[in-house]
Amino acid sequence: EADIYQTPRYLVIGTGKKITLECSQTMGHDKMYWYQQDPGMELHLIHYSYGVNSTEKGDLSSESTVSRIRTEHFPLTLESARPSHTSQYLCASRRFGNEQFFGPGTRLTVL
Amino acid sequence: AQSVTQPDIHITVSEGASLELRCNYSYGATPYLFWYVQSPGQGLQLLLKYFSGDTLVQGIKGFEAEFKRSQSSFNLRKPSVHWSDAAEYFCAVAANAGGTSYGKLTFGQGTILTVHP
After folding, report:
1. For the segment A53-77, what is each residue's pLDDT rounded down to a tens digit?
2. Interface check B105 vs A, CB under 8 A
3. The architecture CATH gives domain A4-110
4. Which domain range does residue B37 map to?
């Protein structure tokens, strides 16, 4: 069973606030990913990391930033949240092969 | 670049009926293919995957999928649907070549399955 955690699960916040979405995995996976998913839509890759101190932007442009200081931890930060950032954010990880394991997601609402 | 099309946005079936969810992909070579399921408010759970070999793959919860190279398809099937199968289903493709694209998933738009009692 994959162990990947995201906190908070739900977040409602006002415009202009700085937020950090947490993602942690206990599987020792070196590759981690952040996806953005709007209701009823497909997942879009916004960031990925192939290891510590390695981060890349994904296919969908995002104003968020990520860091990878520890293997198990891949937080996503929005410096100034806006209503357009309202979405669900899913974190995933993988080691060998192509199978990605997903966390439960964070549903963000910016008022 | 790879892409995935799920032609059916919403499918409704009766409990006990058979199910087929369609998935078509675009990729220059044989891709890695996946089906994930997402229940409301949850993350994605892997149902099954195809990397190579037997084109009919078995997954969890009684699901299976068949890779058809000639049709660029990877349709998901289940012979008898249960009410608990109601969820959203995503087909995904990953590049199997090296380079920066390796391991990155491209998802279809998803198919919402409703199950009537």
Report:
1. 999 998 888 899 999 999 999 999 9
2. yes
3. Sandwich (2.60)
4. 3-116
